[in-house]
Amino acid sequence: MVTIKREPPNKSRPNLTRLVAFFPREEEEDKDEEVARCVVWRKKKTGKTLFVSSLEVSEKFRRRGIASKLLDEVERLVKESDALETVELTVNAWNANAIALYEKRGFKALEEAEGDVVKKMIELAKDPLKMVQKRMTMDVVKM
Predict the structure, then answer these.
(1) In this structure, how many other beta carbons lie within 10 angstroms of the beta carbon of residue 30?
(2) pTM of the full structure
(3) Dihedrals φ, ψ of 52, to 5°?
(4) What InterPro entries does its record include (predicted)?
(5) Exposure of 115 by Cβ count < 10 A (0-12 exposed, 13-18 middle, 19+ buried)?
(6) How far apart are CA 81 and CA 15, in angstroms?
(7) In principle, which of 30, 56, 89, 119 could form an S-S bond with 25, CB 3.0–4.6 Å?
(8) Nearest alpha-carbon partner for 75 in 90, 63, 83, 87
(9) Which of 3.40.630.30, 3.20.20.80, 3.30.1370.10, 3.10.129.10 is the CATH number of 3-142?
(10) CA 119, CA 134: separation in Å to the nearest integer?
């Protein structure tokens, strides 16, 4: 049985919470194994968006519902706050399993706004991961 723990924010990043999934080891004296993790924080512009970052499940523990358990904990965080309106995350565009999970949970892909091609090229030069990542969002009301 997987256990999800919240690691409290530290002094240098008080707005950031790390969620960690642990799997019990067979030997009692062994420390539980960290098998999945993600980081969440409130976006600073409005404070009304919770951003989920770096959700990752160790390869040998995938397809066991652990990512869903982390998302359940994200939902609990949202419900504890009365000011949040949306939850956002990014996912690699090639990760069909993750995209299917997020869509099943109510996330929708954000449409890219039409705009100046030069601006887009500059943005991609600054952050090349945007070429392979998809941004998704969900209204808190759906949780």
Answers:
(1) 9
(2) 0.79
(3) -100, 125
(4) Acyl_CoA_acyltransferase, GNAT_dom, N-term/lysine_N-AcTrnsfr
(5) exposed
(6) 13
(7) 30
(8) 87
(9) 3.40.630.30
(10) 18
